[in-house]
Amino acid sequence: MKLFVGTSGWVYDWNPDGIEWYVRESGFNAIELNMSFYSFPREENVEEWSKKAHELRWSVKVHRSITHIRKLNEKALPTWKRFLERFKDLEESIDFYLFQLPPSLTFNEKVVKRIELFSATCEKIAIEPRHLSWFTMEALNILKDKGVYVVTPDSPLFEGLPSMGVINIKGIVYVRMHGRLTWYNYGYMDEELYEVADRIVEAKPVKAYVFFNNNHDMLGDGRRLIEIFQEKYGTGLA
């Protein structure tokens, strides 16, 4: 199993010097771009990341106008194409485009057809549902058939991982660590990190991506998870 660990964004109090510090000192080999959910980055920003952080594996969060305002309808496709074009300089380092769905989007045929529209344009789409209706074998099998990856959230939605365990799509697992009892402002206990590691290994992926989205504790928690994989399974970063 190839292991990739990182954080959702890098502008936090634990980072004294931006993306360059992250590449040099964090100990991680992946990054989730979070700011792209709120605004399109400038072309010069993307070019800079492609030079300074090309060795990281990237997941780029898709702009909210696509996922939350237009909710993946046909009118969002031109914006999506512009979004993809903006990241052309970084494309070789990008493994996923992360579509975080709003909680109002339940699993239904209409939304699945909308997802299919986007999956036809890109092979790197990862979906993170925020409604429990998506976490059934029926829904997951349909998404798998559409050629999209599915994020496993560790979050207050379940107070941990879903009961079905870590989701493996085409040999890939993608876990987002949001916190258990509360969103974002949460530090993971050792036994919780061991549980996550065990559940990932049980899913038997070829590649495992874990991104911490719990703000002030993400650096320490991410480093500790890497240690746990090394200590228990002899698995280091890819």
TrEMBL record:
InterPro entries: DUF72, UPF0759_sf
PANTHER family, A to Z: DUF72 DOMAIN-CONTAINING PROTEIN (PTHR30348:SF4), UNCHARACTERIZED PROTEIN YECE (PTHR30348)
Stated name of the protein: DUF72 domain-containing protein
Species assigned in the record: Infirmifilum uzonense
